[in-house]
Structure formats: C-alpha cells, structure tokens
Amino acid sequence: ALSRLLNAALEQVYRHISDNDFGTARDLISRLRQIDPGLPSLSEAQRTVERAEETELKRQERWASFSEEKRRSILEQLARAEDLLAKGIYTSAEERSEGENAQVAFARVLELDPENASALRAPQRIARVYLSQAEQAMAENRFAEAGQALASAASVAPDYPGLAQQRGKLVNAQDAYQRRSEFQAKVDAILARADA
To answer: Among the four residues 15, 79, 129, 168, which has the most C-beta atoms within 10 Å?
Structure first.
C-alpha cells in the first residue's frame, strides 16, 4: 500500500515538472524523502526537476532575447500550426492540403526559433496521428489506406517508436485477410457444388 502511495506521489512530481511547477515538485520530493529517504527514484526525480528548471530558464532567456516582432511571429505560426493540426491538415500527404500544412507551419517556427519545444515535438505528434489512422484502417481491412498512413508517418518521423511494429502488423493483417478470403472462396465453391 505504501509503495502504491509513493508511486502515485512520484507521478504527481512528474506532472508538476511537466507543468513547469518546479517549486511544488521540489516540495513533494522533500515530503517523500521524509517518508522514505532511501527511495531510489527520488534522486532521479530531483535530477529531472533540476534539468527541467535549467531547460525552462534557457527557454525564457532565449525568448527574452527575441524582438517583440519575432515573438509575435513565432506565436502566430504556432497558432497556425495548431489550427492546421486541429483541421487534420498534417502534411502535404492530405489531398485537401494545397500548400500550407501543420508540418510546414512548424518548420517555419523552427526557422525562427530552432529550439522551440512545441515545434520540435511536432513530427512525433503528427506521426502518432498517422499511426492511429493506420490502426483504424487495418481494423476495417482498408490496407491501402493503412499503408499510406504508415508511409506518411515515416515521412514525418522515420524513427518514430512503434512504426516498424505497425508495418509488421499491416503485413500480418493483410496475410490473415488473404487467407480468410481464400478459405471463404473454397467454402463457397464447396457449397456451390453441393447445391448443384
């Protein structure tokens, strides 16, 4: 029971870190040390807070060094990219995308701010959407569509975790569908001969 409580508290620590609420994360780590000073994951959590604080400080310093115009431009491009994501216009692979798409908009952000965390994470976000589309298409035996979604994911984030696995699942799903179709054709032929 205590172990579950400590793990739940550690999850809270990491949520606070991801929300840039470093003070609360540090306070929670301090309280956890009072409960179990030897908990090995506390040292890692502490290092994670320190790295996150350092990263955030650098981001703030970088942001402050930008002109007002550059900051406005970055924010506009980020908003545009998020809008395109929400509309499902991820890359040039979408037929309805006649030019601008989320991938292009995020690339513009990176031209202005090469260390922008949102823009750097964009390929993985887009790949995740494509993998989800591929899974849905496979579940509905729409294998060409699944293959296209996987190809789109690979074009955006070639090293995305799970991409190779999804490709393997597609091949297996196609093979299984083919075998089922062949089996059904044999059954249909036998039944047709029996009816004749």
So the answer is: 129
